[in-house]
Amino acid sequence: MIIGYFDYIIIGILLLLNIKFWKTKFEGKTGCWVGGILFGFILPLISLTIEVQRVKITIGITDSFEVLYTYLKFPTYWIIGIVQSIITGIKLSYMEPHSDESDGIE
How far apart are CA 43 and CA 73, in angstroms? Predict the structure, then answer.
């Protein structure tokens, strides 16, 4: 399975967080490097490890080509991360600019 149980859980959590994100007013700046590290390396590596362990327990690994598809988890999570950053960018572009009263301009 290119998308396993762990992936479905992560996608569900992202959907819930995006719904909450769209309903609340967002203050502050987002950290792109956190999303890059999460979706670029950490989450695909965890998902790959879980999938290899699942295959090892259920049918056993007879050769390396049986789990070769697990490397597709990296581009899958990269696409999810890009979509997530686009969603965040859209939300931030619709927000009203925050006026700072301490700048002296009235």
Answer: 9
